Amino acid sequence: MSSKKETIDAGILPLLDAAKRAAENAYCVYSQFPVGAALLTADGTTIVGCNVENASFGLTNCAERAALCAAISQGYAPRSFKALVVYAPKMEHISPCGACRQVISELLAPDCPVYCCGSDAEYCRVWSSEELLPGAFSF
């Protein structure tokens, strides 16, 4: 993995498409900044999430955490996921916030790729979950 700009791998395109559709469902009436995420499970299932804002901004839930929480609530085991794609149409590339990085570090395997994509549809940035938050807090 690296945090450099990379051409989107053809195998990730279905996940990117799912993340784009999820972003269309975002509830972002305050920021007007939709984000979608798609998580690939070990059995090949795609689970999506979108950002859901709240007038009390601290209660806002990001797309990445929405997808991860949905997967866990559906019975998928932490650290069993194959890839996560995060998509934001209003910027060239998105990067997970600090809270998402902490959740990602706990629920994705350290080498799980996180693809961060945006309006530059040909490229994305790719990190491993460990690269997103080195020295992450854990028990």
TrEMBL record:
Ranges where the CMP/dCMP-type deaminase domain occurs: 10-139
Q: Does the keyword Metal-binding apply?
A: yes
Organism's domain of life? Bacteria
Task: Give the required cofactors.
Answer: Zn(2+)
GO biological processes = nucleobase-containing small molecule metabolic process; pyrimidine-containing compound metabolic process
GO CC, sorted alphabetically, is: cytosol
Q: Name one GO molecular function term.
A: cytidine deaminase activity
Q: Which InterPro entries match?
A: APOBEC/CMP_deaminase_Zn-bd (IPR016192), CMP_dCMP_dom (IPR002125), Cyt/Deoxycyt_deaminase (IPR050202), Cyt_deam_tetra (IPR006262), Cytidine_deaminase-like (IPR016193)
Q: Which reaction does it catalyse?
A: 2'-deoxycytidine + H2O + H(+) = 2'-deoxyuridine + NH4(+); cytidine + H2O + H(+) = uridine + NH4(+)
Please give the Pfam families that the UniProt record associates with this protein: dCMP_cyt_deam_1
The entry's function note states:
This enzyme scavenges exogenous and endogenous cytidine and 2'-deoxycytidine for UMP synthesis.
Where is the catalytic site? Answer: E64 (proton donor)
Going by the UniProt record, its keywords in alphabetical order are: Hydrolase, Metal-binding, Zinc
Which EC number applies?
3.5.4.5
Q: Does the keyword Metal-binding apply?
A: yes
The record's top EC class is hydrolase
Give the family this protein belongs to, as stated in its UniProt record: Belongs to the cytidine and deoxycytidylate deaminase family.
The UniProt record gives the binding positions of Zn(2+) as C62, C97, C100
Q: What is this protein called?
A: Cytidine deaminase
